[in-house]
Design goal:
Layout (H helix, E strand, L loop, with lengths): L6 H6 L5 E2 L10 H18 L8 E13 H4 L10 E15 L2 E7 L4 H4 L3 H9 L2 H7 L1 E2 L3 H8 L8 E3 L9 H4 L20 E5 H7 L23 E4 L3 E4 L2 E5 L8 E7 L2 E6 L18 H8 L13 H14 L12 E3 L1 E4 L20
Parallel strand pairs: 4-6, 6-7, 7-8, 12-13
Antiparallel strand pairs: 1-9, 2-3, 2-5, 3-4, 3-14, 9-10, 10-11, 11-12
Keywords: Hydrolase, Metal-binding, Zinc
Protein name: Metallo-beta-lactamase superfamily protein
Cofactor: Zn(2+)
Length: 362
């Protein structure tokens, strides 16, 4: 699969944010990198509050859907249920920059088109409609939530995902050609928005590895306008209390959202699906605490592609180092999974010990 831009064109696209030198790329063995990443995380955690806080953060529920337990609670779960449920949520972040208001949508998934991701499309075709209606629950849409919040689509400056698994952006950023499956050439719902993405992920998507193919929709990017993307390399501060931190592993170009709020620092990504996956010693989910003790591991990954597992582990440790303790239950951290484990009667043994459900500030 080839994209409508070459490497030179991507390099020429404008940059965004202020580079975080504290979180520079580290070399060495996985163990050596882990030690350095902990130190970097502690340093940035001390620095980050000085950037300020955003004006507001609002959480919007999008869809709850099934996900394999063996992926979401990688190797650790002893639940009998082969599937668990995760709820995908969008964060709406607003801040003021030089007197101008900015709006960032984090995880604005077009779940109506996301269902055609190869893995989920295959799962849907094998699932009776009656069963699918029981396990898939739609809570709202991106545009519907924005209308409720009084935000016009043209006011949105940035779209951002921790990675582009399952994402189809054609309705959000428009296309340069007719789309047969959409019945025309969609105009951009967000005409002024740019998609913040790691350059590594764009490069990887240009020629997918077999481990990646079930989770991407590469054809959906064939006719998207390259100028809609803001590729970044590494970690940047976008605005007061708003940062993008590179966290490779789940995919090569994974990135996490870091926010400084009235309750301290929050981190959000899909590297894990539950806050207790960062402190599994406090988890009541069957198997997690025992497994991490037995294997001497301090986190439980969300691992479906296993692109670079050691890097993902190290990235989760960085997230764990950055996040403050929850003010609701100090055993758990202010890590907000972009797709959070959600209890369901259909999935015994997968109900979370603790869930954030929302992140609110301002």
């Amino acid at each position: 699969m080839r994209f409508p831009w070459g490497s030179a064109e991507v390099a020429d696209l404008p940059a965004v944010g202020t580079r975080i030198d504290t979180l520079a790329h580290v070399e060495g063995s996985p163990g050596a990198r882990l030690r350095l990443i902990r130190a970097q995380g502690e340093a940035f955690r001390r620095e980050f509050p000085s950037t300020g806080t955003p004006d507001s953060v609002v959480t919007c529920d999008l869809v709850t859907l099934p996900y394999p337990t063996r992926f979401g609670l990688f190797r650790a779960s002893r639940a009998l249920a082969p599937f668990l449920s995760i709820t995908n949520r969008m964060l709406v972040i607003r801040w003021t920059e030089n007197g101008t208001g900015r709006v960032l949508l984090f995880e604005p998934s077009d779940h109506e088109l996301g269902r055609y991701t190869p893995y989920f499309d295959s799962l849907s075709q094998k699932t009776p409609a009656l069963v699918e209606r029981q396990v898939v629950r739609v809570h709202g849409t991106v545009l519907g939530h924005l209308a409720r919040l009084g935000i016009k689509p043209e006011e949105v400056d940035y779209l951002m995902f921790d990675h582009l698994h399952t994402q189809d952006l054609r309705r959000w950023i428009g296309t340069t050609a007719h789309q047969r499956d959409l019945g025309g050439q969609p105009r951009a719902a967000f005409p002024n928005a740019k998609v913040i993405v790691q350059r590594d992920e764009l490069a990887a998507m240009a020629e997918l590895h077999p481990l990646q193919r079930p989770w991407y929709q590469p054809a959906a990017y064939r006719d998207v306008p390259p100028e809609a993307f803001l590729p970044i390399e590494g970690s940047v501060v976008l605005g007061p209390g708003v940062a993008v931190v590179k966290t490779p592993g789940h995919v090569f170009g994974n990135q996490s959202l870091v926010l400084n709020t009235s309750t301290g620092i929050w981190v959000s990504s899909e590297n894990v699906i539950a806050a207790e996956a960062l402190t599994p010693e406090h988890s009541k989910l069957p198997g997690l605490a025992k497994w991490t003790r037995s294997w001497q591991q301090e986190v439980v990954l969300n691992a479906n592609t296993i692109e670079t597992t050691a890097d993902q582990y190290n990235s989760i440790i960085l997230e764990k180092t950055l996040a403050d303790r929850s003010q609701v239950d100090a055993r758990f951290l202010q890590f907000f999974p972009s797709s959070e484990l959600t209890g369901a009667w259909t999935n015994p043994g997968t109900g979370p010990t603790f869930a954030h459900r929302h992140l609110t500030h301002g």
